[in-house]
Amino acid sequence: MKLVEKLSKSFYIARKDMRVYYFKAPNFTYGLLMPVALYLAFSVSGTLSPATLISGLVSLVILFGTMSIEAVSVVLEKQTGTFERLLAAPVSLIGLVLGKALAGFAIGPLTAVAVLIPVSLLSGTSVQNPLAVFIAICVSSFTFASMGILVSCFARWTPEAQMYSNFFRFPMAFLSGTFIPVESMPQFLQIFSKVLPLTYSIDAMREGLNNSFITGSYLFDLGILLLFSAVFMFASTKVLERQLS
Amino acid sequence: MTTPAIIASDLRKKYGTLMALDGVSFTVGKGSIFGLLGPNGAGKTTTIRIMTGLTVANSGSVSILGHDIKNDTIEAKKKIGVVPEISNIYEEMSAEQNLVFSAELYGVPSSERKKRANELLADFGLADRSYDLVAGFSRGMKRRLVIACGMVHNPEILFLDEPTTGLDVQSTLALREQIRKLNKEGTTILLTTHYLEEADQLCDTIAMINKGKIVALDKPENLKASVTGSNVIELSFSELVSETELDSIKGVIEVHCVGDKVRLVVGDEKDIIGEISDFARGKKLNITTIHTLKPSLEDAFLKITGLNPEEAVKDKEQLKPRRNDG
Fold this sequence. Notes:
Chain A has about 240 residues and is mainly α. Chain A contains ten helices and no strands. Chains A and B meet through helix 1 and helix 4 of A and helix 2 and helix 3 of B.
């Protein structure tokens, strides 16, 4: 199958997912309210710089906004029988997983920008490199969407998917430098934070906020996020493959 | 046999310790209607799932118009349409959106998608509900839409798993007509059904499957002919007669009372009518009705699968939870 044909099918799946699952008020409000509430709870101490808090908040919004739906999108389809319609169609498993992840990838930047602009203005923080921040938002969205798909492929029903999802999201929120700088954490937690994708999302976002030029650290963060995405996508495909057999 | 559209070779599938399919092999001719019959849990759905790429067999192979479903999955899937037993449409989308989405997945050119969707909506009597969300549809309407979705890309082979289950009489007849029309246009059809009459009316060839094995594979008329060793005579007398008395008639193998009628299973006795007449005269009874019953596909099914009638009529619906109960 030609690449364009493959990608177009993934796009149709993504568009369908956005229509069916994403453009619903409860999904938007949960994805926005939960991280904003966390942000307010931790920012009152005033110990973190605005750039650190904004990068943490934007990354959290992406994490919660994309994962809350992605984590249940496959499970919901399995429960309603519609997933078999996708499996029966001439779409490769990787194309199917990509389509699912693309829906989250499209929603992430919308919610992130909706938070980034007002918060930057209110805190008087200038974004040094808007393009770099936007790219970091897009890459982070894809990574967290892929992570959500992996969770969804494993889960057998919706509550299980939500449980797995929270099992990853909440520890990440606290161990990735969102509210507490990674450097001030105990050594063993610092090592742990290095294997969490949110750490690299926050770091890339902070680099874009603070520097007008592209740094090596920024590129490294994006590379790690893309690597995480590839691993999540590959693992999701393998899980589905195993379930088919 | 015409050119094969589907070749299933020695399919084996095990779920835990249960052998769901145990060496299933058959060939479906191009342009034919092939029926897969069997009691619940016989392996019909597993066979269809393997042939449509929804499950992978432990061993064996399926060729769809020359494409191996396991190794050349995408090309094989392009040739087929799948209508599952359970509704698989998006209730949050309209009927037209569902059809267009299927058309997109199967690579129907963008200029033809809406046209094709509207043709099918008209064919299935859903044209006036094109833009309504499926969530508000009745069960029958959803069923029709599921079938339309399976046909949107004009597949060369159409798999129909219990296509008329849940449909009213009018929709059932319309769908059977649609199946015949599609077949006349060249579509190969493989269907499973627990309506034996439906299989008898529609299918060119029938495979009976039981406990994961094909137990009979032939044309419906040949399958029915396989039970002609014994004939059935249905008759009624002016007064009720006990089974024991009827059993004494020479040549009668079995006696079944059905309401005020009796069914006599008889052998090849040439003078059985004379024997029955003599019996009636002797008892001073009048024969009020009498006719011979031709063996039906149901008789063949029961004989071949070895099921008793109660097991055979168990409705699959009662065993499975359904989503589309609108």
